[in-house]
Amino acid sequence: MTLPIAILAGGLATRLRPLTEKIPKALVEVAGEPFAFHQLRLLARNGFTDAVFLTGYLGERIEDAVGDGQRFGMRVRYVPDGPVLLGTGGAIARALPALGPAFAVIYGDSWLEFDYQAALAAFEGDGRPALMTICRNDDPAHANNVEFEAGEILAYSKTARTPRMRHIDYGFSVFRSEVFAALPTDAPTDLAAVTQDLAARGQLIGFEVHNRFHEVGSFSGLADLEAHFAGNVR
Questions:
Q1: Helix (H, G, I), strand (E, B) or coil at 76
Q2: Cα 88 from chain centroid?
Q3: Which end of the chain is least crowded, N or C, by CB within 10 Å?
Q4: CA-CA distance, 178 to 231, in Å (whole number)?
Q5: What φ, ψ does residue 227 adopt, rounded to 5°?
Q6: Would you say 170 and 213 are in contact if contact means Cβ atoms under 8 Å apart?
Q7: 3-class DSSP state for residue 75?
Q8: What is the secondary structure of 206-217 as a DSSP string?
Q9: Which pLDDT does position 13 carry in this prediction?
Q10: 56 burial class (0-12, 13-18, 19+ CB within 10 angstroms)?
């Protein structure tokens, strides 16, 4: 299954200041290159051919650095937030004309090594409009936000956490455009609120991943990914 993938890259990246005072988080250097370069090559290796960066803060710098994506083996397009930062949900709603009837979503600071095609196949084989990858988490440094039992997501919340939540959202999702069709395209909306509502209505597929995730949203995460890259061929 081939779908376009939206890359959420509009945030202010305040946890990486002063590093991100002049560059967006997607262009923070990892192993000698902007992170976005590594991420695009990873997505291309996993079968994606069409990426859409949803940009906000310093988004023009991403477009200047990445270009049309040809050198990464992909077509890359851009949908900027405009004068108001739209948040993760609002950015997706604004980008629906570019994304089409179904699409994947990944955070622009996430490095995820797992079977993307298996997740897409699970989505295609289920009639529900959304899928979220999750992983079991026993690390107290990361707050669990998913209640997952018998292969089903029973609850998801980043604010109303319970002891029954033993999983965490992994950072890759798949949606049908109908999920966002009623959202405003000129006002901020949080993707987490959309996903929480889907889970409450039994409309969110859970796809469990057993590999750990890496991220460049913090200095500790950046150092961790540098160490991971140093021990692996990319």
A1: strand
A2: 9
A3: C
A4: 42
A5: -65, -40
A6: yes
A7: strand
A8: EEE--S-EEE-S
A9: 84
A10: buried
Compute the distance between CA of residue 226 and CA of residue 167 in angstroms, rounded to an integer: 25
Given a cut of 70, whether residue 74 has pLDDT beyond it is yes
Of the candidates 211, 199, 188, the one whose C-alpha atom is nearest the C-alpha of residue 116 is: 211
120: nearest Cα among 2, 228, 9: 2
HSE-CB of 225 using CA atoms within 13 angstroms:
26
CA distance 120 to 109: 21
CB neighbours (10 Å) of residue 75? 14
Q: Which residue has the tokens 């993938």?
A: 5
C-alpha to C-alpha distance for 130 and 206, rounded to whole angstroms: 9
| Angle, CA of 124, 129 and 132, to the nearest 5° | 80
Rounded Cα–Cα distance for residues 232 and 234 (Å): 6
Q: Is 138 exposed, middle or buried (0-12, 13-18, 19+ CB in 10 A)?
A: exposed
Q: What is the CA radius of gyration of the chain?
A: 17
Give the residue among 199, 3, 190, 5 at the shortest CA–CA distance from 112: 5
Residue 178 in tokens: 């109908």
- Tokens 């991420």, located at residue: 39
User: pTM of the prediction?
Assistant: 0.94
Q: Are 217 and 111 in contact (CB under 8 A)?
A: no
pLDDT digits over 175-223, tens only? 999 999 999 999 999 999 999 999 999 999 999 999 988 999 899 999 9
